[in-house]
Amino acid sequence: GILPLPPQVRYYVFCVHHDSLNTKGYSLLIVRSFLVVLDQLIL
Fold it and tell me: How big is the CA angle at 9 (ends 7 and 13), to the nearest 5 degrees?
């Protein structure tokens, strides 16, 4: 079976995973707003 991880390790893994999700979301938001601005400039 899977070895139980100590809370610190579990928390660390969760934080790292959460951070990567956050950066992905932020980059998506930036790209989307950039595209919107680009659309308005072209139109």
Answer: 115
User: What is the domain range of residue 32?
Assistant: 8-39
> Which pTM does this prediction carry?
0.49
Does 6 or 43 have the greater pLDDT score?
6
* Residue 34, domain member (yes or no): yes
Maximum Cα interatomic distance, the chain, rounded to a whole number of Å:
59
The total domain count for the chain is 1
| Residue 10, both tokens | 């579990």
**SS3 of 5, please?**
coil
